[in-house]
Amino acid sequence: MTLPIQPSPAPLDLIGVGAPIMDLVVGVPDSFLVEAKGEKGGMVMVDADEMARLVAKLPQPPAITPGGSAANTTFNATRLGLKTAFIGKLGNDELARMYEARFASTGVATDRFKRGTIANACCLILTTPDTQRTMRTYLGAVMTLSPDEISPADFAAARHVHIEGYVVFNQALAEKILTSARAAGCTVGLSFASFEVVGASRDWLLNQLKLGLAVSFANEDEAKALFPDLPANTLEDYAAHAKRLASFGGTAAITLGKDGAWIARGSELHRVAPVVVTDAVDSNGAGDAWAAGFLSAWLRGQSLEACGKVASLVGAETVRHMGPIIPDGKWNDVAARAKSLSK
């Protein structure tokens, strides 16, 4: 089931840009994170050998599902009725073919994918009993995407472009994506992706905010890294983070996981109440799903309150399942509830 959307002057409502990564999702005890050699809850790039070493040490085989931050958002936004496409570089292996087929079957236009000559990217997602996810990523073909492969033509006839923050690790590529999307007449938005991204690229991100981002998504860790001068001791403190982020001229969302979110735009400030989930198993993809719900309502011109409610619904349902994608069998109910919130 998908939701109806009003006809748009542009054939596409949304283009997602990021890494088409195949996710390897597995539950592990906290003790296993010693093998991952990094901070719990973060994302670290690894090479092919390190990925193979970690997979070999897993306590059980991982589940395989299409992932990637902007890809998850695009996938869910399509299910919520938006007309979408995705830009990212696929590999030349069976994982790449599985990835493209899954997106096409959902209705995402796949004609803007780039094609590589090496293995597809994959991400090992280690989910601990507290539902926190720690990620180790091998980028494969994604790393071969060149700024020269991106042009305004990639963004033709689209309303809005949603870019994942992981792209910012390659600032030349990120610059080309943003300038091309803007040249094509699209509004642009960014999900900050992780505190590591913000820590490594804070000045660049602040400059992009000054140039204009229509929608920005950050969680509490990313917000603290972006605005270290602001208090961050209570949930109420993050209202100031949302207002600061929105002060650059766009709409800002600061997500607080199980504690809800703050949304700001101009003089508006809205507190999004949390959706209580008593059977959470995996937080992987929840922020991406939250962004999809938000964008599906925002692109329909809904109020900030409605945007927050739809976002929270989709994000909360995601944590009830292993992996970043709500199972097909559960989706009709989610779509129906989202539709009722969008009125």
Overview of this structure, please?
- By secondary structure, the chain is α/β, with parallel strands linked by helices.
- It has a single domain (12-20, 70-118, 140-341), classed as UDP-N-acetylmuramoyl-L-alanine:D-glutamate ligase (3-Layer(aba) Sandwich).
- The chain is 37% helix and 21% strand.
- It contains eleven helices and 15 strands.
- It has helices spanning 33-36, 48-57, 69-79, 94-106, 171-183, 195-211, 220-226, 238-246, 286-298, 304-318, 328-341; strands at residues 12-17, 21-27, 43-45, 63-67, 84-87, 89-90, 114-115, 122-127, 133-138, 158-164, 187-191, 215-219, 251-255, 261-265, 268-272.
- The strands form three sheets. An eight-stranded mixed beta sheet has the order 5-1-10-11-12-13-14-15, sandwiched between helices. Strands 3-9-8-2-4 form a five-stranded mixed beta sheet. The chain has a two-stranded parallel ribbon with strand order 6-7.
- Strand 11, helix 6 and strand 12 (215-219) form a beta-alpha-beta unit.
- The chain is globular, with a radius of gyration of 18 Å.
- The two termini are 17 Å apart.
- 50% of the residues are buried.
- Residues 1-9 have low confidence and may be disordered.
Structural class: alpha/beta
* Mean pLDDT value: 92
What is the H-and-E element order? EEHEHEHEEHEEEEHEHEHHEEEHHH
CATH level-3 fold name: UDP-N-acetylmuramoyl-L-alanine:D-glutamate ligase
Q: How many strand elements?
A: 15
Terminal CA distance reads 17 Å
Task: Specify the CATH class.
Answer: Alpha Beta
CATH superfamily: Ribokinase
Rounded to the nearest angstrom, the radius of gyration is 18 Å
Which residues sit in consecutive blocks of at least 5 with pLDDT less than 50?
1-9
* Largest sheet properties: 8 strands, mixed
Helical content band: 25-40%
Keywords: Kinase, Transferase
GO molecular function, one term: kinase activity
InterPro entries: Carb_kinase_PfkB-like, Carboh/pur_kinase_PfkB_CS, PfkB_dom, Ribokinase-like
Protein name: Adenosine kinase
